[in-house]
Amino acid sequence: MNWLSDIQFTASATLHGGALVANYLWDGTQDKRTNYYACPDDETFRFMASIYIHSHYNMSFSKEFLGGITSGASWYPIYGGMQDWNYIHAGCFELTLEVSDNKWPAANETGVHRRIFSSDNGRPLPASITIKGINYMVKVGRDYDRLLHPGDKYKVVATMPGYKSKTTCIRLDEGLTTVDFVLDPEVTVKGNVHECNCGSNNRLDLVKFLSGGHWEVYFTVIVALGFLLLLVQRTKLNLSKHSRSVVPKRPAVV
Fold first, then answer.
1. Half-sphere exposure (CA, 13 Å, Cβ side) for 69?
2. Where's the active site on this chain (predicted)?
3. Helix, strand, coil fractions of the chain, as percent rounded to 5
4. Sheet holding 128-131, edge to edge
5. What is the model's pLDDT at position 78?
6. Residue ranges of the chain assigned to CATH 2.60.40.1120
7. What is the pLDDT of residue 250?
8. How far is CA 63 from CA 21, 75, 76, 121, in A?
9. How far apart, in whole angstroms, are the C-alpha atoms of residue 22 and residue 16?
10. DSSP secondary structure letters along 210-250
11. Which of the residues 105, 116, 120, 230 could staple to 109 if both were Cys, CB 3.0 to 4.6 A apart?
12. What is the pLDDT of the chain when averaged over all its residues?
């Protein structure tokens, strides 16, 4: 829209797929119904559309649209479309050209295609397809089609959250190229894992304890042992002094 404001175009065209017809405005009607609703330049738009369809062999022989042209409102009304906006706000005469009614082109025209499945239940996955070296991702519905230039080698990667990605190498020739992917779910461990040493030996537990770096325990034990040794030494010294000061009694003579 900003581009149209900066540069005044006289005419333009939008290319669509899904039908064979040259579509011109209006795209909608005042009463919201599907019927022909002519714009002020209706004759000019019909003339422009006719010029194009006579250069498109298949479109000119359309069995669905008389003469290969139609107004948007008589086909299916939409509101807020680009071709109406161009005419109203930019003075640009735009056609919408539906250039193909082939909704499922052959695989050799699209590069590589097929489906992506889950290995645990066999159901199709809404995964994604990427090509190594090309920073672009294709979202997958029930199947995928990836346009690629023929004659080259490609690494095709299928990815899906919660599944392990898979990569395969293909050489894209002119013939049919199909690649099915089967993705494996990622395995996750739920809950906590506990180790049980119910049958461990007490001495092994003591060794593990002593080798665990409990320095505060070592210090406390050493201080306690030192205090006990000091107490024993003082007790022995006191007993020795007491034994020397006591005079033994002489035995009684009867």
1. 21
2. 98
3. 30, 25, 45
4. 134-139, 128-131, 153-159, 166-171
5. 80
6. 107-183
7. 43
8. 10, 14, 17, 44
9. 10
10. HTT--HHHHHHHHHHHHHHHHHHHHHHHHHHHHHHHPPPPP
11. 105
12. 78
pTM above 0.70, yes or no: no
Residue from 93, 5, 23 nearest 59 by CA: 23
Closest among 154, 147, 151 to 111, alpha carbons compared: 147
In this prediction, the residues of the chain whose per-residue pLDDT falls under 70 are: 104-110, 174-176, 188-219, 236-254
Nearest residue to 144 (alpha-carbon basis) of 118, 110, 175: 110
Q: Name the token pair of 156.
A: 């095709």
Catalytic residue among 94, 98, 174, 216: 98
Backbone angles phi, psi at 99, to 5 degrees: -95, -5
Which pLDDT does position 110 carry in this prediction?
63
Whole-Å CA distances, 58 to 103, 104, 112, 138, 230: 16, 17, 27, 31, 114
Residue whose structure tokens are 């003591």: 206
Calpha distance 77→74 (Å, rounded): 7
Burial of 11-32, coded b for 16+ CB within 10 Å and e otherwise, reads eeeeeeeebbbbbbbbbbbeee
Q: Can you read off the two tokens belonging to residue 126? A: 């809404």
Q: Write down the pLDDT at residue 158.
A: 95
pLDDT value of position 119: 92
Residue 98 annotated to the active site: yes
- Smallest Cα–Cα separation from 65: which of 47, 49, 87? 49
Taken in order 37, 43, 48, 53, the sign of the CA dihedral is positive
In sequence order, the β-bridge partners of residue 146 are: 112
pLDDT in the model for residue 141: 79
**Distance of alpha carbon 148 from alpha carbon 138, whole angstroms:** 12
